[in-house]
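Practice set, problem 2.
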Amino acid sequence: MELIKTNKELKEVCKILTKAKFITIDTEFIREKTYWSQLCLIQVCSEDIEVIIDPLEDGIDLTPFIKILNKKSILKVLHSGRQDIEIFYKISGKIPYPIFDTQVAAMVCGFGDSVGYEKLVDRVLKKKIDKSSRFSNWAKRPLTKKQLHYAIGDVTHLHQIYPILNNKLKETKRTKWLDQELQVLTSEDTYNTNPEMAYKRLKIRSYDIKTRGITFQLAKWREERAQRYDLPRGRVLRDDIIYELSSMKPKTIDEIMNLRSFSNGLRLKEGMINEIHEQILIGLSLKEDNLPKLPERRKLPHGTNSRVALLKILLNSVSEEKGVAQKLIASTQDLEDLIADDLADIKTLKGWRYDIFGKKALDFKNGKVAISMEENNVVLKEI
């Protein structure tokens, strides 16, 4: 393992990486006190080299490595790589391509829902890894040998895991399943930080136009302020306070200060209170055409909960039989939508999910088959 601190060293490393068919990548970063992740380390492993790049070194230029990330002949392998990709997207304006996410692949291969790296290493390689350095302050220098050993382990084990998962995908003919799931990770929409879209992070349950207007405007304002001053959203304004303000709809600063959150000791600068007040008034003035559309109100049929519970039994059975994580096949929301509408626009009724579960679920819902037990196995029987 080599720690890369200079541009000359990085260029030499990238010359070697250029020849690789695939490389495994991980990052260490901190984000507790900022909006944007602060990149602290980049770990990379290929057949020929294992390195840690220190992006905090004065004068280091990551351009040669960014070119590697964008080189189409090299597969980039990550584990639960969404935040890593977000960091590289912020730096370069491009999403690394092509990619292979071992967490998603593990779900397709039946290792369970959102399997962690430590658990995957244990199950695939039968190895235990030391996670005691996981919560290190990665921005502090110098780094200890223990920290560096931990960091490089995140890519060396991954380099062994990738061929195993890839072969299993080919054997089970599920490579296309994985490709479909990775479309989300490789879409720029996934990393969209447009303040106009910030409302999507909040649960807007009310169809009242004023409630929606305040929620939308405060979410937008919070996102803009968080980005401008590089602060976590919660440090600008917590979700629960946005919900309280949109519910109570205060029209004056005095009314704001009399709300429970503010009267219970919440301290904000006077300028912040004035800004919040301004945003509330803007939110109250918004018309329907200026607000995002909410899904149409849906009235679930009587007995939906019990039907969903039965479908979950079928889902669990299919998950075990096919070796695919339940979460990947259908969510509780998907099952509710399926109960409400045979033609619901949900992933469960499309593609491979329909083939292994969706059709069975519809047949069961419509009384064409029944769930039964045979020799401790859940089976479907035609009625």
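Problem 2, part (b): a different protein.
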Amino acid sequence: MREGARGFVPSFDCGNVPCVINRDRLVQSFLELVAIDSPSGDEDAIAAELVVRLRSLGLEADQDAAGNVIGRREGSGEAILLSAHMDTVEPGRGIKPVWDGEDIIRSDGTTILGADNKAGCAVILEVIQSAIEDGANTRTIEVAISRGEEIGLVGAQNMDYSRISAKVAIVIDSGGPPSSIQGQAPYHSTYDIEVHGKSAHAGLEPEKGVPAISIAAEIIVGLPQGRFDSETTGNVGKVQGGLVRNAVPDYTLIQGEMRSMVEEKLETLMTNAKKHVDEVRGAHPDATIDAKFGQAYPGYSLTPDDPAVKLLFPVLEGLGYKPNPHPVGGGTDGNVFRGHGIASVVIGRGGYNQHTKEEYLVIPEMLQCAAVVEGCVRL
């Protein structure tokens, strides 16, 4: 290790040429990105900044029609996709990072920190710059930094995949060290059910109305809710209807989701839910019930012959880290990428207590993440 302005700059053996991850630069990049507010839906400023930074590193970079930042740096051999997301959850405006010793950065307790996922963005920038400075022979590097990830993977769902040729992706968007790998993620389906009834005065002539809320209640009791087993869950997350207390409501919206690690289990839940809605529809011919069920994203389980595993695991082991794949209950852009034929693996970048005001970042683990990712892009 070599001394740096604030601690050290660690050296790692990433193959034929040692890679030197610049701690000071990586941390400074993270802090500068955190200073740009980017809650979901308000990412224009951070997107513009990321385009500037990628272009300064020699990448062809701009935004696609959905607002995602897409970049490319020509190299040798097959392309690799490096991915993170630029948006954060709320409260994420006016973030004030606080040092806790030499190796931890926390939020000041009034907002999130934004390590999810400004740390991932900073890692991508440092990996590219480090590889250039090290004179390393690299794969063609493609970059996809999405917007709207925290509100349903919106950016990844609407990304311009014609601009991505890579068939393997490293998604830098998990908590813990880089050895913490999302080894299994669920299949995820959603539904929107609209009940159209008929309004009437609740005191004068309620019998002339068709109560949308009451009909919706019949639907809700038959929808999957809670945990069914260790692999499968369901939830009714939003019910909205009615305007005033003295009118029979003529409209109610129900929104919910189902998840399972096993696709067949999810299909069974979907089939049963649709059947139940049909039964309620038949019992209320005076109402109109519109139901839309669909897959939000596919699930996956990593296997030893998965292209992303075959790329990542040897790099981790070569740097002395034992891969630790584990199941997660949520989805990431990696799920969406897999639906587009890109074998993706999601790794940790040193963040903890995500989506809370107690969020913090462990700097040595972010450096380890950068070294692992650089090892993956090198030939």
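Answer key, part (b): Confidence is low (pLDDT under 50) at residues 1-8. The longest strand covers residues 187-196.
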